[in-house]
Amino acid sequence: MTTLDVAGPPGRTSARAAVAATAFAFLVTMMGTTIPTPLYSLYASEMAFSPLMVTVLFAVYALGVVGALSLFGRLSDDVGRRPVFLLAVGLALLSALLFLLPRSVALLIVARVVSGLAAGLMSGTGTAAVIDLFPAGKKALGGTLAVAANTGGLALGTLFAGVLADVAPHPLISPFAVYVVLCLIALAGLFAWAPAPTDRGRLRIRPRRLHVPRSIRGAFARAVLAAGTGFAVTGVLTAVSALFLARDLGLHSHSLAGFVVFLAFAAMAAGQLIARRLRPQTAIPAGCAGLVVAATLLATALGTITLWPLLAAALVLGISGGVCLNAGLATTVEQVPPEHRGEVSSSFFAGLYMMLAVPAIGVGLLAEPLGLRRAGLIFVGAVIVLAAGTAVAALHTTRRRADG
Question: For 55-109, what is each residue's pLDDT tens digit?
């Protein structure tokens, strides 16, 4: 078994620097995945995109994430966290450079696939690496920081891009140019402070199927359904919000488009803090109930063509999704030993990103014959049923255990 780089460098200051460098690299990598989100209306105008093309770009990103998680989810368990971190940030940097080249549909698709690979490598490895850097009694705090870096990066990326697109010259270039600098800073921090693998003799890439230990499979299924439902609502919100604001509401501010998605992911980080005060058995059904409310608000926004329910949906979605996500990590990734933490974390996020992608792709496919709003309403309805069913199933499991 490979010895893992879980202890970190000696000394309190260097240990804190390792946590900071690791969390910052995690955050920066995830920022890159949402930078294009508020820019889709610009791409649609410049390159005559349809809603279907926007969701194709979203879909290939999600497929890149799932592919990386499925094939390389155990990689950091085998070779150490640091090499995989460096690879993930390097791919994020490459993706940004591709966005800076002369634009074509093919190049944008390649850039999104590379971004998905970066996010896939980072989602599993980043969560495991941050948790590893905390002592046994503070693993929950490590899990909270990991999800905060993940969702915080997703939130900041979309707001950062939207604001720069409004205030800086060359709105399709400036966000990616600044992001290149952030990636270089993240790489420098990893080289300086991230713990190096303690076993350098087994540095090899071997794609493996992901595996979830039998002891947590029931909890794992419940966690993926709950947190994945939150990602499914997010998929619908992300797929429709930018074009809905521009085409239906006549609001062409890229900052506003970025803010809607930022609000969802920032609230998701806040939702984790709420979840820390709840037992997972309570948090999962409560979070799913909140997702029903969020999806209903999103349906109201699409049905009445009004802004405030969209903003409210993003806020409630984020808090409820964060509650489910934190509870899911607490009952899965935090319950396994370090040598399995990378693959369990990767399996968890692979399930979430699959549930993120399907509604977004479905909205794009149905938008052509039905229109964007009607397509969004259909998938919002499906997500409401899924969230309600998951809440009922979680309550049933809790009651059965209490009776048993």
Answer: 778 778 888 888 887 777 667 777 778 888 899 999 999 999 999 998 888 899 9
Distance of CA 337 to CAs 198, 213, 240, 289, Å? 17, 10, 40, 32
| Listed residue (333, 319, 327, 321) closest to 277, CA to CA | 327
CA–CA–CA angle 228, 183, 41 (5° rounding): 60
Spatial contact of 227 and 352, defined as CB atoms under 8 Å apart: yes
Reported as type and span, the H/E element at residue 202 is none
List the one residue out of 265, 199, 330, 379 whose CA is nearest residue 35. Answer: 265
Half-sphere exposure of 147 (CA within 13 A, CB side): 34
Alpha-helical regions (H) of 244-337: 254-275, 280-304, 308-330
Q: How far apart are CA 291 and CA 289, in angstroms?
A: 5
Neighbours of 13 (CB within 10 A): 10
CA distances from 32 to 96, 196, 209 (A): 7, 25, 27
* C-alpha 224 chain-centroid distance: 13
β strands within 70-140, DSSP E: none
How far is the C-alpha of 217 from the C-alpha of 90, rounded, in Å? 33
Where do we find the tokens 């955050």? 27
Spatial CB neighbours of 353, under 8 Å, sequence gap ≥ 6: 62, 65, 66, 69, 120, 123, 231
Q: Is 14 exposed, middle or buried (0-12, 13-18, 19+ CB in 10 A)?
A: middle
List Cβ neighbours of 166 (8 Å cut-off, separation of 6 or more).
253, 254, 255
pTM of this structure = 0.80
Domains and CATH numbers, the chain: 12-197+213-399 (1.20.1250.20)
CA distances from 116 to 12, 60, 245 (A): 34, 8, 26
Mean pLDDT of the chain: 84
Helix (H, G, I), strand (E, B) or coil at 391: helix
Q: Which of 347, 319, 261 is nearest to 58 (CA)?
A: 261
